[in-house]
Design a protein that fits this description.
186 residues, mainly beta, eleven-stranded antiparallel beta sheet, 13 strands, single chain
């Protein structure tokens, strides 16, 4: 699925979302008012059997900040909202992990990080959920393009998507030619 924002002749923002199905998920979420950053979440029941869904907001250290009451998700139904709508009393700014779990049937989950830049343009990007019961991978990941300087930044958010798994690793930066690149991290 591809989301796009094109208020006129030019596309200002576009993001692709993979379809992810399971019974327990973790994903990075954020909510703040200045600058306005919101995480939008959509949960879809793709079966013909109703189920319940529970959402839990965790700090980046894994401490529970808020848990929703179980919500009924009807057969072929959906639950859509922003983080601050699911947790209206969650202190802002908030950066953490959202855990979504369901009873019974598997659901599909999508998350978007949304903000308005300094020019007032609406920007979106995906924050893909990880299936909590998935097999952890130690495979190397590659980020072919990132920006750092000239007013641009790239934010890398690394977290463990599997319960009980330690989140450790090494980040190496290389030039297009493959030489080591010194990058100052903030």
């Amino acid at each position: 699925m591809i989301f796009g924002y094109k208020p006129g002749s030019f596309t200002l923002s576009e993001a692709g979302v993979p379809v992810t199905t399971g019974t327990a998920f973790r994903m990075y979420v954020e909510a703040s008012s200045a600058p306005a950053v919101l995480s939008g979440i959509a949960i879809a029941n793709t079966t013909n059997v109703a189920g319940t869904v529970t959402l839990e907001a965790l700090t980046m250290g894994g401490v529970s900040e808020a848990t929703s009451a179980p919500r009924t998700l009807p057969a072929s139904g959906q639950l859509v909202g922003f983080l601050n709508e699911f947790f209206p009393n969650l202190a802002q700014p908030f950066q953490g992990i959202l855990r979504i779990s369901t009873s019974g049937t598997a659901v599909s989950v999508v998350a978007l990080r949304q903000r308005f830049n300094e020019r007032g343009d609406y920007l979106i990007t995906t924050t893909p959920p990880t299936v909590e019961t998935g097999t952890p991978s130690a495979a190397a990941r590659s980020f072919p393009h990132f920006v750092n300087g000239g007013g641009y930044t790239t934010q890398f958010v690394l977290f463990s998507g599997t319960a009980g798994q330690a989140a450790t690793g090494t980040i190496r930066f290389y030039t297009p030619e493959g030489a080591s690149l010194a990058v100052k991290l903030r």
